[in-house]
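Session log. Operator J.P. requested a structure for one protein chain; no other inputs attached. Running the standard single-chain path with token output.
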Amino acid sequence: MLLVRTFAASALLASSACATSQPLPAGAKYVAMGSSFAAGPGIPSYYEDPPTPCARSTGNYAHLLAARLGLNLTDVSCSGATTAHLTGPRGAIPPQLDALTPDTRLVTVTIGGNDLGYIGGLTNASCAGLMKETGIEADCSPVTAPAERTFADLAERMDAIAKEIPRRAPQAQLVFVDYLAVLPEAGTCAATPLTAAEADSARYTARRLAEITRTVADQNNAGIITASEMSKGHDACSADPWMNGYPRPGAPVNGTLYHPNAKGMKAIADALAALLEG
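Structure written below.
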């Protein structure tokens, strides 16, 4: 597997464990995998008609990158996907890893949030918070923070995926892309109706997910786009958000709640292009 560098905090940082990435020729096969943070639900327009169940947007980072570099994209990212859906089927949807072929030259992966119930937990907590605040009744599921074993299991599954990709696609550069920041580094706002404890719990989950992703990338000589770091100051509460917040009366969300918007996807595509172009 060819090695790539790390992108963090809007700067390229060369890791001593990683060599410079090799230029990708026009038409090179690119496979994009992952969950909704890769698929781009709520960002028009959709790649498929009807868009369900995966809701892959033509404005997600994979499509933007492929258009910019002239790559031949196979986008198998899917909203709601977990690591189990990379290695195994999801109903009639084949395992995402099955999209890999020996001639694949680039693979990007954004995964793990659904394994931890990250965005689902944020959504349920915000539902309950808004109900208390406004008195509007809603069916809000209880929130359970991930157990330590859940984090450990995710790390094992992501490591297995990182090892399987070069077995199926030995020429491919592998780049993990972690999750854009949803919440500010401290506090909340009207767009994130959470208690302080709920917000801190979500930040802890996000931090552990970012740490797991970085560790797996480092241990497997893969590249990483640390979107969690470069999006600080562009959370759902910021003046220039790359992330949608939670809808409330009089303040609808133009997109999918607690998911990247078009600016966030473009920022990741720009970071990937900078990484790959050297």
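Operator note: Residues 20 and 79 are 32 Å apart (CA to CA).
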